[in-house]
## 1
Amino acid sequence: MSASEDGPTFSTHSTTSGMVGGGFYNANSSPQWNAIEAVLPMLDKATNSLPVDCPGPVCLADFGCSEGRNSIAVMQRALTSLLPHTDRPVQTIHSDLPTNDFSKLFLNLQPGGKPVFESDRVYSAAVGGSMYDQLLPDRSVHLATTFNAIGFLSRRPVKTLPGYIFPNGPSKERANGFVAEEDRKAFAAQAKQDVGTFLQKRARELIPGGKLLVQVFGANETASTCNGLYDLLNDAVLAHVDLGEISRETYERYYQPVYMRTLDELVAPVTDETYGANGLFDIDQTKSYEIAVPFNERFQSDGDLDRYARDYVNFFRAFTEAVLSGALPETPDRGKLVERIYDTAVDLLKAHPDRYPFRYIAIAMLLTRAG
């Protein structure tokens, strides 16, 4: 990957190379699991109603598996419901970008050299590719899931965001930057089109009556998951602009290509013909909710500021580092500069913990493939 005029470039239909590997994402994804856990009843509902009376294996596919910790747990939950209701073999597919750390995924699928799914009817595989492309054969999938990954856009809709590093803009409380309304609308439109494209591709892969569960971080009328978190990262990056280690041009070109949707924005492409997916799915259930954040609860309990700051920063480093690193000039010092930026974020948070409050809002929808 490299930095270009338009920002970091990765693989086709991807604006990131994925999560930090080497076990780092798995170790810092407990909040994501809490968000997934809240919609497991929707997963149960989907699994219990799958059409499994046709020949061949039942296929369960998860898009955006990262290193596998949460993806495997989801599959284990689905298999608990599915296996007693069919004697057919089951294929689990774990998919992510080609640049994902699949080595950790494979180790997690075979802990101690034995299959993690304790059934001789379950077979697992991994597929590398963008979730905005078709990755599996037509009508081969019974249940498709994605958790959080669809928040990462397929392309950068604008070249620069001169006033802030995130398209939804800073929190009202911090107000440490700005995003022009025209730019924000460009991201909102791209986010909807990405959902539309994702639905088109999954519609080809799913059998009629197959289920699709989509969950992602987002926003509601009172809060957004970007609040606090990106205020902190923005302040840390600007600190190094002030030190002369990052140019203003680089800062304006760098932004995290992620958008915090509302539930209405997530659901709109299912029925709006603008995005090319209307008529492909029926809506079974939708949900907007907030989950408890483990490092927030721990800090409230023990008051350990050092641990809180490190856990908070490691949490967002796991999914922001690739884009940040790719946006910086390729120099021998780039890795050390990235390290210093996240260290600065820790120092800022420890100095002003009340300045960067973090809440985790999530949204989800369960769909059935029409036809």
Note: The beta strands are 2-4, 7-9, 58-63, 90-96, 122-128, 141-147, 206-217, 281-291, 360-369.
## 2
Amino acid sequence: MCEARMKISLTDGLYCIYEFEPKHNHILATSSQVHHLRSQRKITEAQLASVENAKAVGISNKATFDLMAKEAGGVENLGFTREDMKNKLYSKRSLQINHGDTGGVLEYLEKKTSEDGKFFYSIQVDEDDLITNIFWTDSKMVADYEVFGDVVCFDTTYRKLNDGRLFGLLVGVNNHKKTTIFGAALLYDETTESFVWLFNTFLTAMSGKKPQTILTDEDAAMVKAIKIVLPEIHHRICIWHMNQNVCKHLAGVVEDYKKFNKDFQNCII
């Protein structure tokens, strides 16, 4: 730990230095390196707005950073690094997610996948190498899908959560009528593009095996994605969401007839 320090006190309106140690036990940054120090780096809201405007018209972060550095007379005069700019954009985008604003459809340019026989994961990043969508499964989930994967339910109840990314599960039922998980995902948004990526990645993890039936809610983007990736399989609305629709649209009927729910279950099962 460096012992260099200066302590100042305020007495009767006057500042007084009562302790001073000028010697450092490390090499000091040169004038050409000062702009790399954390204390000297800060991106202003005006600069961030310029970056976002450039991104909105298709200019990459690298090109934007190079232009801003040139306008400032060099990187050392800009006040922040390219990594600072990327981190600031990511932090702001994460905040937008938490408040339900996805900022429009992202352009996904890269996918990173790893498989070692025990754990499979796929991470999708955008043109700035920022993570957008994540999917993972393991060998047991893959083995369960091989046996019980004729019917898959994409559980979208994650939409009830308001913090962090959107969480979804691909699940089924085993021979003991117990829920079994085939895979999980953290999604950036609920666009058709994100669902298409998820379903394609899920099929990759499962060696291309497609379910015969998939159960979801009535989300329009998801319906479109299923038609694109899984056009030949049966798509049905799951019972839980059907019950929710009954409670929402037939509340008067349910209140008047106590046996309605039992009769309704006999109709749909």
Note: Residues 82-98 form the longest helix (17 residues).
